[in-house]
Amino acid sequence: MTTATPAPGTVTTWKLDPAHSSAEFKVKHMMISNVKGTFSGLSGALQLDETDRTHSTVEASIDVATINTGDPQRDGHLKSADFFDAERFPTITFKSLNIDSAGGPGYEVSGELTIRGVTKTVTFAVEDLSTPAKDPWGNQRIGLSASTKINRKDFGLAWNSALESGGVLVGEEVAIALEVQFIQAA
Which of 19, 145, 168, 176 could form a disulfide with 127 if both were Cys (CB 3.0 to 4.6 A apart)? Predict the structure, then answer.
């Protein structure tokens, strides 16, 4: 069975596959090492312009309650009002505004990132979309990797604690890395 090549100007819809996608973050802890965490509750869609990918759009959301740093006590603190305030702000969202070619196979995707009710424009460096591949169930899939850095204080994640030795418990810069698979919608 062959896959038909889309007609010029064709826009296809791809749904994010949460079982094969993750959002990871890392932040300095005690100014000596990084602590990593993941979110597993991702959802979203990509409207892919097959002729000119810079005309594509993407929207995604993350369920804050799915945070996992490997320490249930820390996860509970991150969900509290000190950080994400998951009860009042249960999702993190992203909506693309602009996609530019990065001069090679990748793209720069700028958009509105909303965390804790605060929206800021951020730019993700995106590795080129993979070539579509058919899974064992007949679905077409594509994947990508993306990354950015944010200042957590810009989004109201300001809690911290001074260290006796100087410095602070939690760094301000947060590195974000996404690994995402999409399934073509019928």
Answer: 145
Q: Could you give the C-alpha distances from 88 to 23, 74, 81, in angstroms and in order? A: 21, 19, 8
Complete domains list, the chain, with CATH: 14-184 (2.40.128.110)
Q: Is 39 exposed, middle or buried (0-12, 13-18, 19+ CB in 10 A)?
A: buried
Over residues 60-70, the mean pLDDT reads 94
Nearest 5°: phi and psi at 136? Answer: -60, -15
Distance, C-alpha 46 to centroid of its chain: 13
What distance lies between CA 100 and its chain's CA centroid?
Answer: 18
* Tens of pLDDT, residues 111-152: 999 999 999 999 999 987 888 889 899 999 999 999 999 887
- Mean local confidence (pLDDT), 42-57: 91
pLDDT, average across residues 56-69: 94
